[in-house]
Every structure is written in C-alpha cells, then in structure tokens.
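As practice, study what follows.
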Amino acid sequence: MLLLCLAVFYLISSSPCASAPSWYSTGSRSARNKLLLISFDGFRWDYDRDVDTPNLDKMAQDGVKAIYVTPPFLTITSPAHFTLLTGRYIENHGVIHNMWFNTTTQEKKQYYMTQFVDSYWDNGSLPIWITAQRQGLKAGSLHFPGTAATYKGETVRVRKVEPRFYDHSNETDWRLNINKVIGEWFHQQDLDFVSLYFGEPDSAGHKYGPDSPERRKMVQQVDRTVGYIRDTIQDHGLTDQLNIIITADHGMTTVLRGGLVKEIMLSKIPGFSFKDIKFHLVDYGPAGMLLPKEGMLEKVYQALKGGHPHLHVYKKEEMPARLHYSNHPRLLPIILFADPGYVINGFLPVQFHKGEHGFDNQVTDMKPFFRAVGPDFQKNQVVGPFETVNVYPLMCHLLGINPEINDGHIDNTKHMLVPKKKAEGNNNKMSTRLQVVVGLSAVTGFLVLVFIVTTSYALCKRPKIREENSCKLKHAASEENTDMEQTIF
C-alpha cells in the first residue's frame, strides 16, 4: 500500500498543471526569457517627432510604446538610473545627486569619481543585478551608472565600467559594446539580464540645446543603433527569447539666457550671504542644496524665499510630498530648484549649457521615452504614462525573481504583457508535446508500480495458502483416524 500511495503522489506531482503560472506570461524558471535594459541618457519623450526614426517606429509596431514616463525628482543621471535599478524614489535609495560630497571636509566628487564610492551607492537598496544573482541568475552591466560599486560585499559579476574621459558619441564604440553584450554575454555566456548605457543624446542636448540640428542628428544615430541592436539579436537567434526595454533617465529643456531674462544669482539676492553658509551645492543646473551655519537656517531661508520669481526655496521637511525628496539624511536643510529654463548660480554665472535637466519631474520636457519589445510584450500597443519606479517590478516579473522592497507595482505595467493564454498559445506545440510525454511517462510509471505491487502481493500470499491447505489435510487425516478408532472400539 505504501508503494501504491507513492505512485499516486508521483503522478500528481509530475502533472504539468501542478504549479500554474499567473495570468500574465513569464514561463517556468528553466524557460524564462532573457532581459536587456537599455538607457539612452537624456532621450526626451518627443525626440522622435522631429526626426525620422524608422527603427524606433518598427520597435513600437512590434512591441509597446509609452506616451512618456515620469522620472523621479531630482531629474539627473545617477539618481534617476538608480531608481530604474531599485524601484525606489530617491529619498528612499539615497543616491541623491550625481556628486558625492562631505559637508565636514567640504570635499566634492564629480559624476565619474562618485561611481567608485561604494558607501554612496550601497545605502540599503539593492540594484536588480544583485537580487538576480542571489536568486540564481547571471547578470551583467556595461557602463550603467552604479556598475562600479559593491553592494553588501557583492558586485555585478559580469561588467564593463565606463572609462574616464569616454567619448559618449562614438558610434563605432557603441557597436563594439553591443557586440559584447549580445554576442559574448547573452549568446556565449548565457546571461539572463544585462543593463546597457549610452551617454547620448544627453551630451548633444546639453552642448547644443534640445532643439538644435546636432541633437536631431544624434537621435538619428540612436535610431540606427536600435536597428543594429535588433539585427544583432536576430543574427544570434535570440529574438524569441530576449525581451528589450529601452528608456532614459530624464528629458531636456532649453536654458533661457540673455537680456530677456533675469538669471538667478544667489549672491545678488538682498539679505543673503555665503558667509552664513557652511556648505553649498549650487552651480549644477536648476537645483541646489545649502547647509547654513549653526543658528542661520531661518535667516538664510527667509532671505532666499521670494528672492527671485523663478526660484523655489524649501526647508527639506517642507518639500512637496509628491517629489519624494525630503526624508533622507543626506539631503541638506535647504533645497532649491528653479522653473524650467533657469539655472541656479552661486557667486558668478559659470554654467553655459544650452540645454539642461534637473527640473521638477512634472515638467513635460523632463519626461523620457519608453519602448519595449520581445516575446513577453504585446504588439503594436501604445500605453499611457507611468512612473519609472514601476520599471523595476516589471523587470523582476519578467526575470521570475522576487523583488526587494520598492515603490512601484506590477499592476501599473502588466497591461503591456502578453496574457497567459495567448503566451501559452504561442508555445502550444512544444508545451503540448512536453505535457504528453510527461503524462505518458507518469502513467507508465504508475502502471509499472501497480504491477510490481500486485505481483509482490500475489507471491507473498501463495506460501500462506499452501501452508493453510497442508494444515487442513493433516487435520482431516487426524479426524479420519479418530473416527476409525471409535468405530473399531
């Protein structure tokens, strides 16, 4: 009977229906599709409107296009990219700026050197690379912000860190990096997830402005690159097993200058003095932070508030809750940000970019683009706007991993995915054959076990029957002898 129970248990557990997937497509762990996350820094949501982008258009037809996505505030590179990797708002993941700084020593590190300050990045929120690796997947990253850092003693195991003084516009290098990611990492090393970063069209937008012909030319280069990526994926036979998400960290807007506007110069605001400031982080686009000297907080705040019609001044605890930029100890007591088109200068005007970002994330020009294509995504679907904190849970779902605590939700993006029935229909031929084989194997095993149990039982019963028959014969013979004796007597 024990063997019979085991046989039934084996049959049930071997059934393909034993662990049903959720309503939307991911597949089993062994059949999970791969994922490539790509960021084109500073690609505004509408950059494909004034340039022919046949490859991006084809990607939208083959997959999903969002009208735009909303980045976190502060809308700058490192913080916004770390939100993509963690699904946390900036006040929660702690990468609050492109620059690392120390208010005691007055030390500041620019964007590139900040990439190597582990304690700045390893602040309690794990990027998706580490989560994936801890759950048995193989992850890689090329040039993506945060790639160089160590998190809880662990790094992304396959990586290429951006070199210093790197030419972000070199299309030849772009293709070499694509070949490495797709040909080596996905095809040869069988990685499950890779993040890939390109520094354009951000640089062109800063230098020449978002409405310039140089920016439009760079968008055409981006479009060619998207075509090359998809062609390379097809050449390596990965089209049906690789999902692609392409997005950006922020948008870009034109900086207003000249005699038509009054620029923001903190040193010229009446009642304000840098002598009252212990540490400042200004001259970095439209946002800044101040640490007043002891006892000077209220004086500095009152002097700056209302000091310029296009300057917004907040004590950090009074920042609008929708910005999620107040509840981290790294944030300084006074936070400044300007209206679109204006930048914040300290002593003198030292900023000369024609395009800038870092503004309120509700500003339309700060919105990035979003495209997705692959076996798990719908085709020819345009979706409404959503926040980029929701990209992380979407990626975790596609990879079949359990997410860390995050501020997004899969419900905000699940409509992009192929429903389960449709996904099963696409794989029906293979899955049906597999189910038939598994089912027949289970039934065969069950019948074999039943045969063994039955035969064993029969063999065990036979000696007992013989013994019982022998005993009956002896007993009968004994009774017969007794009867005979009684008769003679």
